[in-house]
Amino acid sequence: MGVRRGIWDIFLPVPLPGLWIEMKVGTGKLTLEQAAWRKSLMPYGYQFYVAYNWIEAARRLAIWVGMPESEWPK
To answer: Are strands 19-23 and 10-12 parallel, antiparallel or unpaired?
Structure first.
């Protein structure tokens, strides 16, 4: 559960401008507030990813920071 309505769960500020990750369960979808948050920040170059488990989130973070695939979580 997020802290503020519409704000995504995880933010990695580097490399700039940053990556936002939203954690969902099952077939969960973005809320209208989350979609609006994404839409408002995309023009500034932020990237967004919806993950359905911690492994997806960890892999996206690894890609974002340039970690070699051989070091990704299994």
So the answer is: antiparallel
Residue 55: count of CB within 10 angstroms of its CB: 12
Task: Give strand pairing partners of 21.
Answer: 10, 49
Per-residue pLDDT of the chain (74 residues; tens, 9 = 90+): 556 788 999 999 998 999 999 999 999 999 999 999 999 999 999 999 999 999 999 999 999 999 998 887 66
Q: Give exposure, 21-33, as e/b (b: 16+ Cβ within 10 Å).
A: bbbeeeeeebeee
The pTM of the full predicted model, rounded to 2 decimals, is 0.87
